[in-house]
Design a protein that fits this description.
Elements lengths: L6 E3 L10 E6 L2 E3 L7 E7 L3 E5 L2 E5 L4 E4 L5 E5 L4 E8 L14 E4 L3 H13 L9 H15 L7 E2 L5 H12 L7 H8 L3 H12 L3 H16 L7 H7 L5 H12 L3 H9 L2
Parallel strand pairs: 1-3
Antiparallel strand pairs: 2-9, 3-8, 4-7, 4-9, 5-6, 5-8, 6-11, 7-10
């Protein structure tokens, strides 16, 4: 997608437990911020990126990202018709002893969680249902460890070395090309062996894993363009085989590219 300037939005720092926020955007980015509550964030009809010290995360349409309290982060999206749903929760007691939820994790779509939040939007703030919010919110919190399971691996960790940052920039700008270790190591001005070793040390993943994840993230963005066929998307991110791309996409996102597109964008 074109790198045009996008508006920056401020964030509210103090929000009540159980607040559900629905916002509609074109393209946006936020300042670096954090909240005292846990956040569950889900985009619709678009893709959101979350950047933090924990890593850089791609949140596809209708997926959920769990953000622990006081984790500094920023959100960026270049989607044209994005609906962003967020619920803020105090979970200090409900998750005691639960080691499954880390600082930031991305989870597959959950119809049950969608319905619970939609119910909250319709009824929690109604004057006719003043006694409804507390028990419903308590039930939701108890269910979360069972709803948020098997996180998907659509995240990367940015390196700190200046040479590796040049390599990363080269990779991102060249996803549609035949990326080779030789070309990347030349861009980083280091040997292939040193590149492999330092990249794994600073990012926690191999260079090949980073390229694969970056291509999948780009594909998820391109899915929003109804003028592009799946085969054109495959070509634009540097794959030659639709079958290979589809298998990797399904492994990471949990559904085939066509099913993802048909379900969330009606293409």
């Amino acid at each position: 997608m074109p790198k045009t300037p996008i508006s920056q939005l401020g964030c509210v720092e103090k929000i009540e437990d159980g607040t559900i926020e629905i916002r509609y955007f074109g393209q946006f980015n936020t300042e670096i911020h954090h909240h005292e509550q846990t956040q569950l964030i889900s985009p619709e009809k678009g893709t959101v990126y979350l950047y933090s010290e924990c890593g850089n995360y791609c949140i596809p349409s209708n997926h959920y990202v769990y953000v622990a309290p006081n984790v500094k982060h920023r959100l960026i999206s270049r989607s044209q018709n994005l609906k962003l749903k967020t619920i803020y929760l105090n979970l200090s007691h409900e998750l005691d002893g639960n080691d499954g939820l880390l600082n930031i994790q991305v989870f597959s779509p959950s119809l049950l969680l969608d319905n619970l939040l939609d119910f909250g939007i319709r009824h929690w703030n109604s004057r006719e249902n003043t006694d409804l919010k507390a028990p419903c919110l308590a039930s939701l919190k108890m269910m979360l460890p069972f709803l948020l399971t098997n996180p998907i691996q659509l995240y990367t960790q940015a390196p700190k070395s200046e040479k590796l940052l040049y390599a990363i920039e080269f990779i991102i700008d060249s996803l549609g090309e035949n990326l080779t270790i030789t070309s990347i190591s030349e861009k980083a001005n280091m040997s292939e062996r040193s590149l492999f070793r330092l990249f794994k040390k600073e990012t926690g993943m191999t260079l090949f894993q980073f390229i694969k994840l970056s291509r999948m993230q780009r594909a998820i963005e391109l899915m929003e363009d109804p003028t592009l066929s799946i085969s054109e998307i495959v070509y634009q991110i540097g794959y030659e085989s639709i079958a290979t791309f589809s298998n990797i996409f399904k492994q990471l996102v949990g559904m085939s590219p066509q099913k993802y597109r048909n379900h969330f964008f009606k293409c």
